[in-house]
């Protein structure tokens, strides 16, 4: 593929997401509790979460057509996840609800002073999804397939389906998993976390990491580095994307997931890769002004105004 990319027009959805959707319980605390200690939460909220789930919420909130093709359990958390998708306008034709199983729930403690979070996540009773249990034809119905490496065998299957139909695969790689190399070989755009890059390549030379990622399959690669911004490789050109400072920083939960949803939107707008990465970085920063991974997701016009105030023309 080459950016700017011209997506196929004969698609029902702009982005189909296959991966993790969860329920997040988020609490702001003065400090992390000690063993066998009870502390008071300064604020609490419950929101939808998960890398793919949150990325699709960004896409929908920015006015594009998003569809979820993953799995949830038939429990209170699963019902909450579904309700959040429905409220945001994310299509659920490809969703699979497993009876008598528990959905993924994440417990997140946010440090009041810095906005940084500590999370405990579990997949509940959801078994590893395989392609024949999911509606894998959904991969052919989107311009972009967005995957996060959860349910790896199914993600690889979906990626093959997507590419056969002329779509592109965007991989949000947060951590190295069995099958990550195989999925990268089927990926067009891979923007990975610094944790993934350091684990995969054993160093923090970000340019070398981006070039190594491209050698593994993607046409475009990048690394997100939290408050240090991001880096990317556009063909032969390595570039840095500075962070966007915001005040106050309330909570960094979901910032990477929001970045990737905004990246999908930018790719569909037909922008070059550096501009796509810059847009993702700005939208992720805007999210951090609010508690939880989704409450602070802006509309497209709000994001464009934020960038214009800082000298960027989008």
Overall structural domain count: 1
Shape: globular
- Radius of gyration, taken over Cα atoms and rounded to an integer in Å: 18 Å
CATH architecture: 3-Layer(aba) Sandwich
In what order do the strands lie side by side in the largest sheet?
A: 4-1-9-10-11-12-13-14
- CATH topology title: UDP-N-acetylmuramoyl-L-alanine:D-glutamate ligase
At the first level of CATH, the class is Alpha Beta
Biggest sheet statistics: 8 strands, mixed
Low-pLDDT residue spans:
none
The count of β-strands is 14
Key phrases:
314 residues; alpha/beta; UDP-N-acetylmuramoyl-L-alanine:D-glutamate ligase; eight-stranded mixed sheet; four-stranded mixed sheet
Spell out the blueprint of helices and strands.
Layout: E1 13-18, E2 22-29, E3 43-49, H1 51-61, E4 66-68, E5 71-73, H2 76-88, E6 96-98, E7 105-111, E8 117-122, E9 142-147, H3 152-164, E10 168-173, H4 180-184, E11 189-193, H5 194-201, H6 206-215, E12 220-224, E13 230-234, E14 237-241, H7 255-268, H8 273-287, H9 300-309
Parallel strand pairs: 1-4, 1-9, 2-7, 5-6, 9-10, 10-11, 11-12
Antiparallel strand pairs: 2-3, 7-8, 12-13, 13-14
Helix pairs in contact: 1-7, 7-8, 8-9
């Amino acid at each position: 593929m080459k950016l700017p990319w011209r997506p196929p027009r004969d698609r029902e959805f702009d982005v189909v997401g296959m991966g993790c959707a969860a329920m997040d319980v988020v609490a702001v605390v003065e400090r992390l509790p000690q063993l066998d200690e009870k502390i008071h939460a300064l604020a609490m909220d419950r929101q939808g979460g998960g890398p793919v789930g949150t990325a699709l919420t960004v896409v929908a909130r920015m006015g594009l057509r998003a569809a979820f093709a993953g799995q949830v359990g038939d429990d209170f958390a699963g019902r909450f996840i579904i309700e959040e998708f429905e409220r945001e306008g994310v299509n659920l034709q490809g969703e699979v609800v497993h009876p008598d199983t528990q959905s993924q729930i994440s417990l997140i403690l946010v440090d009041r002073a810095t906005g940084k979070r500590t999370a405990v996540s579990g997949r509940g009773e959801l078994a590893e999804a395989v392609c024949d249990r999911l509606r894998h034809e959904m991969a052919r119905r989107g311009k972009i397939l967005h995957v996060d490496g959860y349910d790896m065998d199914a993600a690889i299957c979906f990626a093959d389906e997507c590419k056969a139909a002329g779509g592109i695969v965007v991989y949000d790689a947060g951590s190295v998993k069995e099958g990550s190399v195989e999925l990268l070989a089927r990926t067009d755009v891979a923007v990975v976390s610094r944790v993934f890059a350091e684990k995969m390549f054993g160093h923090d030379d970000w340019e070398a990491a981006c070039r190594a990622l491209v050698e593994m399959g993607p046409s475009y690669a990048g690394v997100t580095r939290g408050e240090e911004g991001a880096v990317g490789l556009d063909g032969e050109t390595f570039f840095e994307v500075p962070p966007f400072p915001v005040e106050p920083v309330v909570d960094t939960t979901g910032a990477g997931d929001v970045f990737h949803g905004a990246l999908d939107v930018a790719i569909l707008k037909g922008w070059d890769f550096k501009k796509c990465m810059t847009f993702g970085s700005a939208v992720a920063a805007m999210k951090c002004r609010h508690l939880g991974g989704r409450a602070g997701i802006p509309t497209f016009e709000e994001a464009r105004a934020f960038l214009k105030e800082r000298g960027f023309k989008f």
